[in-house]
Amino acid sequence: MATGATESTVSPNLTGVPRVDFLEDVDEFMKKSENDTAESVLKRQEELHNKFKFMEYNLNLKKSRLKNQIPDIKSSLDIVKHLMVKRNNTEPLCTRFLLSDNVYAKATVPPTEKVCLWLGANVMLEYEINEADDVLMKNLEAAKKSLGQVEEDLLYIRDQMTTLEVNMARVYNWDVKRRQAEKDGKL
């Protein structure tokens, strides 16, 4: 690939992000048949840079979503654990629950063996309390693992972008030197 990226190598996490190799020798790189002019090489590198920016933007959105999701899962897990403790109690549980932003309602919850969990996409399922605890624990572990992977992906993409930016500067400087040499009649 003319951008200093090799198509056959991908990131260690196998997300298909191309690896950008540092251009040690710009003269040799520019002699390759696919590298007609510095402008065409810089254009391809800029396109790849824009792709990296797009991937970074999407990963940051995913990271933000996961950072909001994890506290919600923890809160649900705490509530389920509290209900597990109170299920053998004969007295109902008095609590407040969130209706909308800053609007709460009082509720009296009788001892129960079942709870309903929002799964997303307007889907709610009823679970036994122990099952709900298992589901929430698995969801929490998956969200934490996904957040870790997203953070690794972001670091990898930033590294690739930095290498690409350095390569772009090296190709640009090579072209400036070449043009100056042509102008001075040395080529």
Automatic annotation (TrEMBL):
The keyword Chaperone applies. It holds the Pfam family Prefoldin. GO terms for biological process: microtubule-based process; protein folding; tubulin complex assembly. The keyword Transmembrane does not apply. Keywords: Chaperone. InterPro entries: PFD3, Prefoldin, Prefoldin_subunit_alpha. Belongs to the prefoldin subunit alpha family. Binds specifically to cytosolic chaperonin (c-CPN) and transfers target proteins to it. Binds to nascent polypeptide chain and promotes folding in an environment in which there are many competing pathways for nonnative proteins. This is Prefoldin subunit 3. It comes from Arion vulgaris.
